[in-house]
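Exam review. A common question shows you a sequence with its structure tokens and asks you to describe the fold in words. Practice with the pair below. Do the first one on your own.
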Amino acid sequence: MRKISILRRCAIFLAVSAVAFVSGTGTVSAQAVVDGSDGRRWSDMYELPAFSSKPGQERIVRRTGYTVSFNPKLRIPNWVAWILTEERLEKNVASRPGTEAFVPDPEIPGCPDRQYNYNKYRYERGHICPAADNKWSGKAMEECFYMSNICPMSRSLNHDSWNEVEEKCRDWALNRYGCTVYVVGGIVPSSAGKGPKGIPSYVGVEDDIAVPYFMFKAVLRNDPDAGWTAVGYVFDQTGRVEVKTVDEIEEMTGFDLFHNLPDRIESRVEASDGSAHWHGSADFAD
């Protein structure tokens, strides 16, 4: 848990509550927050990181199947948060569309279109919240192809370690634990546009979409056996992945993850290596 003052927590809570009360769109303080949600209260969305207090760092949009913090300067998401449940994963009412489905987010001015120079960069359009997690709703499937949910990923990352952890998360929610799994994934902002030699750092027609060299994913659940527990991962564009505590991910990213948990629980869960409570969670570690 990143240290955050009581006054700042109150300010964030009041700002978000004010937006949640208003239908449609609205702007509060420095952040623009669009609420197109399924009706859950913001304070009950345990998958959410705290919103940024810095102007211009993010635009929050709450979609049918996920919430995104989009970074207007980097032109990629800071993070995307969503839930996995048995009920959602058992439904299969929407199929994955073709590449024409990748479109700019209509609620985010300046959101990239789908034009990547593949011949030059060889990156793919990688989903943060995956299409396979959104088969339960046609609207959710459509929205998960908005470019605000997309990040440049190497093939090694997108098809291997990132995809393997996605599949494991679905297995945990559907077959293993039978409870809600809260998921948040995104970038390590300090690594965006700063890849090592041989790793292109920007993509797009005008080379204005940052490539994060490091990305993360953290998952959380609460069940009768293990109680509240979490496990995290950090990936790089070569496809390498390491198991991390949530505190370690917060230190790398600057994000305050799972901040809606009660402080006492948040501190314990985020400091602990919870991998022992997540079956097969260490299978991907290098």
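Now try the second one, then compare your answer with the model answer below.
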Amino acid sequence: MQELTHYLGGEHVKGSSGRFADVYNPATGEVQAKVPLASTDEVAKAVEIAAKAQPAWAATNPQRRARVMMAFVGLLNRDMDKLAEALSREHGKTLPDAKGDVQRGLEVVEYCIGAPELLKGEYTDSAGPGIDMYSMKQPLGVTAGITPFNFPAMIPMWMFAPALACGNAFILKPSERDPSVPLMLAELMEEAGLPKGVLQVVNGDKEAVDALLHHSVVQSIGFVGSTPIAEYIYGTGCANGKRVQCFGGAKNHMIVMPDADMDQAADALIGAGYGAAGERCMAISVAVPVGDETADRLIEKLVPRIEKLKVGPYTAGDDVDYGPVVTAAAKENILGLIQSGVDQGAELVVDGRDFSLQGYEDGFFVGPHLFDRVTPDMDIYKKEIFGPVLSTVRAGSYEEAIKLAMDHEYGNGTAIFTRDGDAARDFANRINIGMVGINVPIPVPLAYHTFGGWKKSVFGDLNQHGPDAFKFYTRTKTVTSRWPSGIKEGGEFNFKAMD
């Protein structure tokens, strides 16, 4: 069995804690590798290496740092198939979806090639008599990120690419469920020209997370995962004086107006609700048709589409719609929530509980499910299911529909499908949710805008990628400079007001 490693100082390093986690093949249920879980001492070693490497990297001018990012983009394109296969093998998502995972991370790296422009400061000539002022954006030092299992390529790159472009060192603690791709990315960064020790990968669990949170040298922490853990990391990191951005859970609503193109809306819900087995923080998990007639038409369109979904391993070809969920525990949790929906009175229109794939009976596959007549008091509405389950909540009016989304504790993403520009404009302006789609089901912003939700979906005041990332990974220093003439006449001890 393969034993994975940490990546420290440009080398693969075996774990020394004696603790390991199993890495599964989700399609078969078999353990395919074991990954070391770092001790506090191992994390401290990674921080020590990063702290030594960071000053020279920070002193490298932004244009040269950008050239490393440019070379990294070329290597990502070169190894796209290799990265996608490794990702699919450990996560379970289809190969096209895995390539999309890498691609959306790659696009953030492309944005970071613009570091020389994004890191320019400001300058004021003659702010006072003989006084000039200018600001500089300087790196934080050693930074760290804790990333989830569902995007093992994209989210690490969302964090480490801007952090490195700004001149920081970065310690990545990826999910222990699918750690191979993060290790591969670290190798490619060094092949692209990143000095050894600037990017470290430390595999681990809560002990490693706490070690990063409490280490005085670590200046910032980024996190993506569940809301309870996001709250813990945000509170602990802030209490320790760190800059912290944490992204938590989601429950994304898609409002379907009576005038919507129902085929377009149904197709959008299929991709947004069932793609990647629903293991996306931007998945649409709640459809909100306005009016019973709209709901009936939508359900009529959805059922045959759902029943035709092809579920299988990534090795079955590119026509597989989605694969297994990541672990047996995830499957058990999803099925438990589905049963709660039935018990609490929701109508299970498409029942995938008996789904079984011949030859893969031990895999973590979950069939597609569609609920109708879900109400806000039900667990399947309140909780993030993170599985191939779509709930339909019927709304009597547009105002009732928008209130559902606005009253939910999560505020990551939302969408409206309509032909009415006035309704779409009102929705975009009023909704208290961070990312909004108008006839777009998964409104993930492109790399040059920022990604981030509202309410209990985010903790911190800056979003991921885009301009916010360069703010998060730098500090602004303002310099007031005076080169007085006639200094031979003696210094002045009173501040001279501007004329």
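Model answer, second protein: The chain has a mean pLDDT of 96. DSSP finds 16 helices and 23 strands in the chain. Full marks require stating both points clearly.
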